[in-house]
Amino acid sequence: MTGEIITLVAANTAFVGSHFVMSHPLRAPMVRMLGEKGFSLAYTVVSFAALGWVYLAFTAAPPADLPGSGDAGWIAATIITWPAMVLLAGSFMGNPALPTPMAEAQARAEPKGVFRVTRHPMMWSFGLWALSHMVLFWSVRTMITAAAMGTLALVGAKLQDGKKAVLMGDAWSEWSRKTAYWPRLGQLFGVGAMPIIAGTALWLAGSWLHLWSAGIPAGVWAWIG
Question: What does pTM read for this prediction?
Answer without folding.
Answer: 0.91
